[in-house]
Write a structure and sequence with these properties.
Layout lengths: L3 E4 L9 H14 L6 H4 L12 H9 L5 H16 L8 H10 L3 E5 L4 H10 L8 E3 L12 H10 L6 E5 L2 H9 L3 E4 L15 E2 L8 H8 L1
Parallel strand pairs: 1-2, 1-4, 2-3, 4-5, 5-6
Helix pairs in contact: 1-4
């Protein structure tokens, strides 16, 4: 019996990931270089310890880059873009359905708490969640399973009693290695990546109800 659903945040609840790639792609272009998606994908759903965009740009153009300047520019562009962003289709309906069904709801994100809770408050979603696990709660982020193990511990459920909703290969890998069922809902960027560890994939939460997803695993 499914007792909990655990959501990734970036790229799943709100698509912060596609803008990040598009912004860095443009910055690379402005420096006369290109940024392959397969390299950027190493840090999607994880952290920049798996891919250093500043170091790689420096390698490509063979001269030092202003890391702080590029970081500030990218953050300004991202902030401007996200002011117009909305929740991904179907997210709010999934949260309402989970609550109406008496299912516990959690977040398991590789981002920091301020970032995650800031957006959840902006869209008035905080009250839907019984637990919010972020990078501050673990020693290592996705694709390591630690954050999902922590989320399950806080929700009081076991792997076969929970479904993780993910948008990235790194996130899906973390969920499966923690023993959860995993449903992938790719975004505009991650739909171009290869997924190897997951149980089901849906195009949009607006097209497939939470009830029908849960029935697949019961």
């Amino acid at each position: 019996m499914i007792k909990a659903v655990i959501f990734d945040f970036d790229g799943l609840i709100i698509d912060t990931e596609t803008p990040w790639y598009e912004i860095f792609y443009e910055i690379y272009k402005e420096h006369g270089a290109s940024l392959p998606l397969e390299l950027w994908a190493k840090c999607v759903g994880s952290s920049d310890e798996y891919f250093d965009p500043y170091g790689y740009l420096q390698e490509r153009i063979k001269r030092p880059v202003d890391r702080d300047g590029i970081r500030k520019l990218s953050e300004e562009r991202h902030s401007s873009t996200m002011k117009k962003a909305d929740l991904r289709p179907g997210v709010r309906e999934y949260l309402k359905s989970a609550k109406s069904m008496g299912i516990k709801v959690g977040v398991a994100s590789s981002s920091d708490r301020g970032w995650v809770e800031g957006y959840l408050r902006r869209f008035s979603l905080m009250d839907y969640f019984d637990s919010i696990c972020t990078r501050e709660d673990v020693t290592i982020v996705k694709p390591d399973p630690e954050i999902y193990l922590k989320a399950m511990e806080r929700l009081g459920v076991k792997g076969h009693e929970a479904i993780a909703f993910e948008d990235s290969p790194n996130g899906a890998m973390a969920a499966k290695r923690a023993g959860l069922y995993c449903v992938v809902v790719p975004n505009d960027i991650t739909k171009r990546l290869s997924f190897t560890e997951y149980d089901s994939m849906i195009k949009s939460m607006a097209e497939t109800s939470l009830e029908s997803v849960i029935k697949r695993f019961e």
